[in-house]
Amino acid sequence: MGGFEVEFVDVWKRYGDRWALRGIDLKVEKGEFVSLMGPNGSGKSTLAKITATVEVPTKGSVIVEGRDVVSEADEVRKLISFLPEEEALSGLLTGMENLYFFGRLMGLKPEEIRARAKELAEELGILDHLGEKVKNYSKGMKRKLSLIATMLPDRPLVILDEPTSGLDPITRRELLGILFKRAGGSTLLMNTHIGEDAEASGRVVLMSKGRILASGRPEELKSRFVRGKVLNVRVPVRLKELEERLKRASVRNAITVTDEGYRVYVDEGFKDVVAKEMESLGVKAEVTEVPPSLEDAYTIAVMGHEG
Amino acid sequence: MKAELIVFASKQLKEYLRSPSSLFWTMGWPIFWVLIMIYVFLAGVPEPALPYVRGSVTVSMIAFGLATVGMVGLASSIAHDRDGGLYLKLSSMPISGWGEVLGRILGSLIYGAVTLLAILAIGVAVGSKFEASTLNVLASLPFFVVLLLSASGIGLIISNSVKGRAVEGIAVALLVGGCSVSGVFAPYASLPDYLKLFSKLYPISASMHVINRLLLVKGFAWMHYDFDPSSPLYMAYTLAVSIGFFVAGILFHKAMARKRALQ
C-alpha cells in the first residue's frame, strides 16, 4: 500500500499553563520517512500523539490524506498504525497471543496474523520466543514484539514514538533496518532523541520547546549548522572554569557535555586555541577531531535559536 | 465489536488464570477462610445447624471471591494496562471501546464461574450443606452474576479514579472494609443495627443475603435474619442496585476514556 501525506497547519498544544507545541507547520510527503528529533520536552511526542489521534491540538489542524485527525478521527485510525513509547504488551500472554490480540483489533484474520507475525518475527530473530510469556522477554525482545504488532497491518501511515528507546546500538540498527525494509511505500513518522537513528530517515525535523528549528536531509543539516570542526575533548575531570573557556572558544558558545568530557564546535584553526586553553589551566586533555553528528547540528541549532 | 469482545474476554480470562496473585486472592484466600471458619469458628454452633452454617460460610466466601474478581482483579488489570501504555495504543485504533469493557466483564464472569465452582467444591467437601429446590437454585444464579457485576462496577470506578500502583491497595482496602462491615465475614445477626442497614443496602452483601435465603432454606432460620431477603421487593432492590453500580462503572470508564481522548 502507498503512503499518505500528512500536513500540520499551525498546530498548538497546551497542557495547563505550558505550551508543548507552538505553531507547528510541516508537510510530510507520501512515502517519506521523517524523523522528529529533539530532547524530552521538545514537543515531538505530543506531535506524534496528535497525529495518532490519541490527543487533540489546542489550535490548528493535522490532516492525513485529506482527513482531519480530530473531526475524522475514526477514519484516520483505519489508516494508521502507532507504536507508543511504552510497549503496551501483556506480560502474562505469550508473544503470539499478544500479536493475535492486536492483529484482531486491527481487523486482521487469524491466518493473516499468524503468517505475518512469523515472517516479521523470523526477520527480527524472535520467532523461537513467540510461544513464551512476554514477562520473560528482554527489553529488546519486547520492543521488537511491539514493532511487529505495529507492522502487522499494512497501513499507509506508521507513527513511532521513540521506537529504539533503551536499546543497545546493535538492536537499534536491527530494528530500524527491518522497519525501513518492511515499511514498503508507507509514510513513516518517527520520534527520536538519538541522532544515529535519525540518520536512517530521509528527512530530519529538529524541534526544541515546541517549535521547529530546522528541517532537511541529515547531511544537509550537519553541513548547515556544523560549519567548522567538531572536537572531542577528553578530560580527567570537569571544571567550571574549563567549561566557560571552552564555551567562549566554541561556535555560538555551544558545547555538549559527554561521558568523557566535552564536544566543542570551532571554526578552522581553533583546535590549537582549545589545546592552549587546556594547557593554561594545567588540564591534561586529549583533543581529537571527530565527524559531525546530528546531535552536534541540533546543539548548535538550539544555541542559535535561543541566542 | 464482536472481535473486540472476544479478544478482550480471552485476554482478561488468561490473565486471571495465569496470575498467581489473582488465583490466590480470588480462590486461595476464600478457600483458606472456608476451612478456617468451618474448623475454628463454628465451635458453639448446634449440631443440627452445623452443615447449613457451613453452607452459609461457603456462600460468604464465594461472595468474597466474586467481589475480589470484580473489585480488585478487574481494577488491577485495567490499571496495569493503562500504566503499560495499552490504552494509549487502543486510542489510536479503530475500535469502539465497548468491546473492551464488555469483553473484560465477560472474561471476569467466566473466571468468576470458575472461582465459584472451586470454592463451592471445597465447601461441600468439608461438610457444607444446601437445601434448595431446583427453582431456588436457578433463582440464585442471577444473584451470583449481579454480585460480580456490581463489584466490577466498583472496580471500574476505582481503576479510573486512582492512578498507578495505588489502585490495587485501595481496591483491597475497600473490598475488605466493605466485606468486614457488611456481614460477609461475620454473621449478619452479629452486626450492630447501623451496620445491618448498610449490609442490607450494600449490593455485594445484599446479593449474598438473597443467595443464603434461596439455598439454605432449612438452615436459614439459624442465621437469625430480621428480614426476608427472598421478598420480591428486596430481590428487586438487590438486582436494581447491583445493575446500577455496574452501569455506573461502565459509564464512568467510558467517560474517562473520552476525557483522555479529548486531552
Q: What Rg of chain B do the Cα atoms give?
A: 19 Å
**Shape summary of chain B:** elongated
For the biggest sheet of chain A, the summary is: 6 strands, mixed
Greatest contact between two chains: A-B, 31 and 26 residues
Task: Determine the mean pLDDT of chain B.
Answer: 91
What portion of the residues of chain B fall into strands of 2 or more residues?
A: under 5%
Structural class of chain B: mainly alpha
Summarize the structure.
The complex is a heterodimer of chains A (307) and B (263). Chain A is an alpha/beta fold and 307 residues long.
Task: Please characterize this protein's 3D structure.
The complex is a heterodimer of chains A (about 300) and B (about 260). Chain A starts with 5 loop residues before the first strand and ends with a helix. Chain A has eleven helices and 14 strands. A six-stranded mixed β-sheet of chain A has the order 6-7-8-3-9-10, with helices on both faces. The mean pLDDT of chain A is about 90. Chain A is of the alpha/beta class and about 300 residues long. By secondary structure, chain B is mainly alpha-helical. Chain B has one domain (about 1-260). Helices cover about 75% and strands about 0% of the residues of chain B. In chain B, helix 3 (about 50-85) runs antiparallel to helix 5 (about 100-125), helix 5 (about 100-125) crosses helix 6 (about 135-160) and helix 6 packs antiparallel against helix 9. Chain B is elongated, with a radius of gyration of 19 Å. The interface of A and B includes residues 52, 53, 90 and 97 of A.
Give the helices and strands, then pairings.
The complex is a heterodimer of chains A (307) and B (263).
Chain A: E1 6-15, E2 18-28, E3 33-37, H1 44-51, E4 59-64, E5 67-68, H2 73-77, E6 80-83, H3 95-105, H4 110-124, H5 139-151, E7 157-161, H6 169-182, E8 187-192, H7 195-198, E9 203-208, E10 211-216, H8 218-225, E11 229-234, H9 240-249, E12 255-257, E13 261-266, H10 271-280, E14 286-290, H11 294-306
Parallel strand pairs in A: 3-8, 3-9, 6-7, 7-8
Antiparallel strand pairs in A: 1-2, 1-4, 4-5, 9-10, 11-13, 11-14, 12-13
Helix pairs in contact in A: 3-4, 3-5, 4-5, 5-6, 8-11, 9-10
Chain B: H1 2-18, H2 20-40, H3 50-83, H4 86-91, H5 98-125, H6 134-161, H7 166-181, H8 193-201, H9 203-215, H10 232-261
